[in-house]
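Entry for the shared binder. Reason: the reviewer on the internal report wants the predicted structure included alongside the sequence.
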Amino acid sequence: MTDKPINLKDSLKKLNAIVEWFEAQEEIDVEAGLEKVKEGAVLVKNCKARLSEIENEFQIIQKDVEKTTGGKSSKTTKAPEGDLKPEEIPF
């Protein structure tokens, strides 16, 4: 097996092609159908593993961002108190 990460888009295209193959069959060849099911199972397993990896990467990035911003989002600002005129709104 290769060290290159699974490309989810390509894998989903392959899964879709398998579904289309089954839908196009008037009379399914059981042996060919079994091979398609095996191929689909491998694709689903690989996609789940890749999605888990991606989720972990996002969590690492989120923790890093929180660490560098002190746990606060950099876009969050506290609204000033009191009545403001439109020209005084800070944005």
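Summary line for the report: The chain has two helices and no strands.
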